[in-house]
Amino acid sequence: MPGLIKHGAITRDDWLPPVADAELAPPEHLPTLSQCLALAEEAGPAVQLEPGEGVADLLPLLARLSLVAINFPVFTDGRGFSYGRELRERGYSGELRAVGNFLPDQMHYLQRCGFDAFQFSDQTRLEEGLRQLNLFSEHYQGAIDQPLPLFRRRA
To answer: Most buried one in 1, 35, 71, 128, CB count within 10 A?
Structure first.
């Protein structure tokens, strides 16, 4: 099982990557959005979104999902940032995981968009990623993790 950073610590993952060409997700593998939607009411507690799929189809399922993984196939594709923010703004409170080819220095911004778990394609980046999460203690702008900007938090 691959490693990931979850709630500020390195841990092991219980899920295997999706098998996109299967009709249904094999046991212990993250289902794709189409596999999840095919099961409708019987869908499991997790799903992985790909760029271009958007979150609209996922919204009716949010209450029963405990894990939404968003794939970043290349670090230059920023759609996953918007997906994470939108899911949090629409009330999703489960684990929001970034998976794939993002950079350790993007993790801080992913966290500000609501991501709380990070799984690199390159497992050697876990320690660097953990260090990057703790670079800043205060932020001037409001975001998902701190909606009030700094000037409104000052008494």
So the answer is: 71
